Amino acid sequence: MTGRRPFVVAIDGPAASGKGTLARRLAERFVLAHLDSGKLYRATALLVLAAGADPADPGAAVAAARRVSPAVLGNPLLSSEAVARASSILSALPAVRAELLSMQRDFAVHPPVVGDRVKPRGAVIDGRDIGTVVWPDAAVKLFVTASPEARAERRAKELRECGAPAIYGDVLQDMKERDARDSLRRVAPLAAAPDAVIIDTTGLDADQVFENASDLIARALAAHRQ
Ligand code: CDP
Question: By the 8 A CB rule, do 214 and 6 touch?
């Protein structure tokens, strides 16, 4: 550690808004380590469900959050809708959020090597509360959103590509319930930081969104180096 603040890009937004894809592409272009913070909540949910416990039970959920490991984070079952639903229930529990907070902060302070053992220049983290709670002084904050219908279309397509049967109406309904739970919870709700750049990707070309975000990051990186 040099004592300098790490370079952090915070990307928040609702389910299937395109934030994950954008985060991955930006990380690759700018040699940043990428953390999908939703996976931490999903991994916790998977462990709770595997134990036959209730995601709303703080004891069971905190015990599961402590057991999140690289193996669980790589489990393909994380992408299921049942896990998504359970993760949004336990993510409203303050003790669960507190348990997962240090992992997310440490990630940016000590970002893991990327690609062929290259030391990253910083980190990009996507989630719901990265710009508001996890890294409120991030160098770049983006809030990526899209209409519920556009997001449900994307998520249904993703699920079908993974071989899961997905009915658009059910996916839309699940997503609206999850958005409401994530936005209305008392602790770290889904919200844009006051200084976040809002990007509505409904009907927008993903490459254009990527180029616009890249311009912001290139400028912030240049300023960070000075
Ligand atoms: O991929 P998708 O956008 O559908 O969801 P995700 O990012 O994998 O997050 C799953 C759930 O974890 C969300 O619905 C939130 O309830 C929770 N979450 C959170 O509370 N805070 C974060 N920083 C990230 C996810």
Answer: no
The side-by-side arrangement of strands in the sheet containing 140-145 is 33-36, 123-127, 8-12, 140-145, 197-200
Strands 8-12 and 123-127: parallel
d(C-alpha 92, C-alpha 187), whole Å = 7
CA distance linking residue 174 with residue 140, whole number of Å: 30
Give nearest CA residue, ligand 1 atom 9. Answer: 38
pTM for the complete prediction?
A: 0.94
CA–CA gap between residue 31 and residue 11 (Å, rounded): 16
Predicted confidence at residue 3, as pLDDT, reads 57
Q: Is the pLDDT of residue 185 over 70?
A: yes
Residue range 96-107, pLDDT digits in tens: 999 999 999 999
Question: For atom 5 of ligand 1, which residue has the closest CA?
Answer: 15
Which numbered atom of ligand 1 lies nearest the CA of 41? 12
Length of the chain counted residue by residue: 226
pLDDT above 90 as % of the chain: 87
